[in-house]
Amino acid sequence: MKKFKYVLALVAILFVGISLTACGKSTTEKLQSQKWDFTTKTDTMTAKFKKNGTLIVGTQLLTASYDYKVYSPKNSKQEYLMIKDKSDSNRIIKYVYTISDDKNNGYVLKPVQKKMNLWAKIDGTDNMKSTLKLSPKSE
Q1: Residue 51 to residues 56, 66, 90, 93, 96, Cα–Cα distance (Å)
Q2: pTM tops 0.70, yes or no
């Protein structure tokens, strides 16, 4: 009976250890934890993901604000980044990207055309329709 209690205690300790290891930062928390170099087809800007769901992208002189959301469909390990913007005519433009880890502690964002809305597909911003990269900002 004494051995059984020790085995049970050991299993409980292992279970707690495994559970704590799995509780790392989520992708959203990682994105919010620092500033990023946001590299498009033609430019590199600074990006800051705020906790309120706002993404600020730009340079010291000019910035743009977007809404963002990181999500994963049920029963899927793939994560997506959705970025929303309003056009000049107040139409919502929705861009969607798969999120993949990059070798340099950043992320590669690949566009998913079928998940973007019509306004994103006809928008003239080719930079947002191409693969994007997020790299930790060196300051």
Answers
A1: 11, 13, 24, 21, 19
A2: yes
